[in-house]
Amino acid sequence: ANFAISRYLFRVAHEEDSAALMADAHHLSTDVYTGLGIFAGLLLVKVTGMGIFDALTALGVALLIAKIARDVLRQSLGVLLDTSLPVNERLAIEHILDGFSPPLLDYHDLRTRKAGAHRHVDVHLTVPAQITAGEAHDIAESVEQAIVEAFPNAQVITHIDVGGVDAATGRVWRSD
């Protein structure tokens, strides 16, 4: 029963991005590992007559529980400390931003963080100097919407910088 419940909790924890549910799922799974370890240790002692297998099995289960505890602690501290988004999520955001070129000339100062199940994205967008403020606003809104569609719990803040492309070098310039 604990095995089935822990698998269910793992699935819901991933769906909800919940560190608390993930910790509880790990707790139930360690109960399963402990029970299997006790069974394996007793079986090995019974079959071989060597009591050392009881201690070795206990040590193995203890090391597994310590590893799980370290992983849960690392994940929980990450949530508490508002860490940056995982690399794959940051790359997905960069891919979204790259899809807006043109009209975007460039983006920079992309900052991300995760607080619980929420994602925070802050980015500067460089738009052509010749467009209107309304057009720049529309571009920013489109970028924000695309990121929120990919990450429903995201709060996105965009900053508009005006720039252009240097005809001689092809490099983007901006007036920060």
Task: Write a concise keyword list for the protein shown above.
176 residues; alpha+beta; 4-stranded mixed β-sheet; 5 helices
Offer a quick outline of the entry.
The chain is about 60% helix and about 20% strand. It has 5 helices and 4 strands. The protein has a 4-stranded mixed β-sheet.
Task: Explain what this protein looks like in three dimensions.
The chain has a 4-stranded mixed β-sheet. Helix content is 59%, strand content 21%. It is elongated, with a radius of gyration of 25 Å. With 176 residues, it is of the alpha+beta class. It contains 5 helices and 4 strands.
Please report which band the strand proportion falls in: under 5%, 5-15%, 15-25%, 25-35%, 35-45% or over 45%: 15-25%
Secondary-structure element string: HHHHEEHEE
Average pLDDT rating: 84
* Morphology: elongated
Order of the strands making up the biggest sheet: 1-2-3-4
Q: What is the CA-atom radius of gyration, in angstroms?
A: 25 Å
Q: Could you give a short account of the major beta sheet?
A: 4 strands, mixed
**SSE-based structural type:** alpha+beta
Task: Give the uncertain stretches in residue-range form.
Answer: none
- Count of discrete alpha- or pi-helical segments spanning 4 or more residues: 5
Q: Please estimate the helix content.
A: 55-70%
Number of extended strands: 4
Distance between the termini: 60 Å
